[in-house]
Amino acid sequence: MVGNGVTDDKFDGNAFVPFAFGMGLISSDIYEACQITCGGKFYDPPSEGCQKNLEKVEQAVSGLNVYDILEPCYGNSETRNGSGNTNMPLGFHQMGVNKKPLPKRTSMFDRASPFWSTRDTEASRPGSQDGYHVKCVDDEAAVAWLNNEAVRKAIHAAPVSVAGSWWICAGRVSYSGDIGSMIPYHKNLTSLGYRVLIYSGDHDMRVPFTGTEAWTRSLGYKTIDEWRPWMTDDQVAGYLQGYDNNFTFLKIKGAGHMVAQTKPREALEFYSRWLDGKPI
């Protein structure tokens, strides 16, 4: 079972622009310009014209929460300041505004690579002991909880005086990633008879479902359960397609990168059915 997983540079990287267009985040003009100048090669731009059009895409989506485009971008002062259109009623400006202010973070950490790349551009992670704040993610509660000495004792974690404070993406472990494409591993495991479930939250912009759907189809397995909705409490919770070799691709409607966090009921439902060997 793999959820919203980075799998292959080309499939994942080339999925971003079609995802942005399909979600209505970029105009038809921008999308068509990207198609003409890039020829579908968004991960590795083949020309300066392609690069310039991709910059327009990035500019259009830069204020969004990359992990869930439906959620506010925590700490994004540009999106919090509201629209400059003063002709609209005040009530319209307040639609969707959280009552609790989203404080501006002084340190924002995110991948240095462009939105359409799902891997870091640098070979290794920073070795700094300082904490980073992942862009758009509200980590204040987690930081406070995991740095509480009573909590650390209860979960058998070393005290702050020994292990240091917990931070999201702390960078204490420096390593290099060289795994390449994961597709051959999926082919190998399915050929050995293992059941595989690949799932995606359909509002995750970090690892768009469009890329995951594309690489799962590229395996060439015969479709045995054609694209259909799957249900929870008599409501459509998402869509799936089943293949031979016990291989299934499943999409969760309205979920972000962390599916269990954004759609916990639906996540528990398909987890349970799959683990119990029941139809989803």
TrEMBL record:
GO terms for biological process: proteolysis; secondary metabolic process. It comes from the Eukaryota. GO terms for cellular component: extracellular region. InterPro entries: AB_hydrolase_fold (IPR029058), Peptidase_S10 (IPR001563). SUPFAM superfamilies: alpha/beta-Hydrolases (SSF53474). The keyword Glycoprotein applies. GO terms for molecular function: acyltransferase activity, transferring groups other than amino-acyl groups; serine-type carboxypeptidase activity. Keywords: Carboxypeptidase, Disulfide bond, Glycoprotein, Hydrolase, Protease, Signal. It is found in: Secreted. Signal peptide: none annotated. This is Uncharacterized protein. Belongs to the peptidase S10 family.
